[in-house]
Design a protein that fits this description.
The protein has 16 helices and 14 strands. The protein is of the alpha+beta class and 493 residues long. The chain has 3 domains: 3-307, no CATH class; 313-420, no CATH class; 433-489, Arc Repressor Mutant, subunit A (Orthogonal Bundle), CATH 1.10.10. The longest helix has 20 residues, at 236-255. 35% of the residues are buried. Heterotrimer of A, B and C subunits.
């Protein structure tokens, strides 16, 4: 069913469960390292492998991290909570249970505001709780999924890494903006967690993963429909596409008289559609019970307030500040944020550039080059310090914008620092009167008709001669000084 047709008949209700790996140096319940990309099964021990007799010990830094996230999400930090065992079998679960939290999470009742098309949506947070990550299965052969694979391998390096789960309450009332609201929430959450400094939230590396819940109910109905849970969606764009795909699919099922099955589903990056995974378990299916090996946690109020005092400026407040400081519109700010340029521009300003110039270079010249190369802006091989240095040379009259673009080209090509590129390519502006006069006299001789017009009072025609001087000097002439000398040589005041 087409998206518009589905929304004409049904109202979507969303829910998002986001898993975030914390950037601690050791795992949640043991001392094993957490280095990403290490050789498979080299960062394991009896505790994270669940060998008999091993006992877990809670990672203090991980608890600090989840409390900071909870505070940033306006949650209440409870005075007492405990870990539970979530029992289920899967090959990447070496203990056959996962240490998690069930009915007594650490952080509850928060919210996060997001904006879509000028409208603010408050996303209510039900809980933020701590658990341990699972291992990683690699299905070899076929499509890369377990169905049709020739065999499977398991890497337990990830098993036991501190994992924060952030669960929203149901999100009704988003209408045709549902996919955009879901994406905006995931985007804002990623920026918030990154600002707190407890995770790199790199979706491409799996340190942030979203489970997207969608249900539909007929327009005018009061009872929500059966939900599906699309698991482990690993990009912001895919969060949006997964919501849209499920609305279209469930709409078609319901419109034909069928029933939506409560199940987990998988999202395909190639097709943009979801496929069935397995029936969705209820809480009782996991046989939760308090973990007998871990003592309850009772974070003191003093500790919580100490952590609150360490929180940095959060993304929403930061955006309001820079918008005012830079003197830009909400639309311009949105473009900066969407381009991933906010940090880069602020760092460039801190290195000495003015706000307008820093934004100009990152949002125009460098954004264009990032698009051409198919990379994120921050992945370009140039630093805010180097951008600020190039702008300083422009401000000092040593470069014009055309030459500056050539300096950017050289730095991005690995030719060295901005000063080294300028020296190697001979790119400094020619402002020496002697050198300019020689070029100007030749240009006047080659364009006698234009020179006569200028002598006759058509001063605006000097622009053509300035252009010819710039061409003859390969863009290195000081255009302002060139115009002054042209008029002087032609006897025009």
């Amino acid at each position: 069913m087409k998206y518009e047709e589905a929304l004409a008949k049904f109202e979507p209700v969303l829910g998002l469960e986001t898993h975030i790996e914390l950037g601690t140096t050791s795992k949640m319940f043991c001392g094993c390292p957490t280095t990403f990309g290490a050789e498979p099964n080299t960062q394991v021990c009896p505790v994270c492998l669940g060998l008999p007799g091993s006992l877990p010990v809670t990672n203090h830094a991980a608890i600090e991290g989840i409390i900071k996230i909870g505070l940033a999400l306006n949650c209440d930090i409870v005075e007492w909570c405990r870990f539970a065992r979530k029992n289920y079998f899967y090959p990447d679960m070496p203990k056959d249970y996962q240490i998690s939290q069930y009915d007594e999470p650490l952080c509850i009742d928060g919210h996060l505001d997001v904006e879509v098309d000028g409208e603010t949506y408050r996303i209510e947070i039900e809980r933020v709780h701590m658990e341990e990550d699972t291992g990683k299965s690699l299905h070899v052969g076929g499509s890369g999924r377990i169905q049709g694979a020739d065999y499977s391998l398991v890497d337990y390096n990830r098993a036991g890494i501190p994992l924060v789960e952030i669960v929203t309450k149901p999100i009704p009332g988003t209408g045709d903006k549902a996919p955009l609201v879901a994406r905006a929430y995931a985007t804002e959450l990623r920026e918030l967690v990154r600002s707190v400094g407890v995770s790199d939230v790199r979706m491409e590396e799996g340190s942030m993963r979203c489970d997207v819940n969608v249900s539909l109910m007929p327009r005018g109905a009061s009872e929500w429909g059966k939900r599906t849970e699309t698991k482990n969606v690993n990009s912001l764009r895919s969060v949006e596409r997964a919501v849209r795909s499920e609305i279209e699919r469930q709409g078609a099922v319901l419109d034909s008289g069928g029933k939506v099955t409560q199940e987990t589903r998988h999202f395909s990056e190639e097709t943009g559609a979801t496929t069935s995974g397995r029936s969705k378990e209820e809480a009782q299916d996991y046989r939760y019970f308090p973990d007998p090996d871990l003592v309850p946690m009772a974070p003191s109020r003093d500790w919580v307030e100490e952590l609150r005092a360490t929180l940095p400026e959060l993304p929403a407040a930061r955006r309001r500040r820079v918008q005012q400081e830079w003197g830009i519109s909400e639309l311009e700010l949105r473009d900066v944020v969407n381009a991933g340029a906010l940090d880069l521009i602020e760092s460039t300003i801190s290195s000495g550039a003015d706000a307008a110039s820093a934004r100009k270079w990152w949002m125009n010249e460098l954004s264009r080059r990032a698009t051409e190369q198919g990379v994120e802006l921050a992945e370009l091989p140039i630093t805010p310090d180097q951008v600020a240095r190039i702008q300083a040379m422009v401000g000092a009259g040593e470069l014009n914008d055309k030459l500056a673009r050539k300096v950017f080209e050289g730095v991005l090509a690995g030719e060295g620092t901005p000063d080294e590129v300028v020296a190697a390519r001979g790119l400094k502006v020619v402002s020496d009167d002697g050198a300019l006069v020689a070029i100007i006299d030749q240009v006047i001789a080659d364009n006698a008709d234009v020179a006569d017009k200028i002598r006759g009072g058509k001063v605006a025609a000097a622009g053509a001669l300035v252009g010819a001087v710039m061409k003859a000097s390969r863009g290195q002439a000081d255009a302002g000084r060139a115009r002054e000398l042209i008029l002087e040589r032609l006897g025009v005041s």
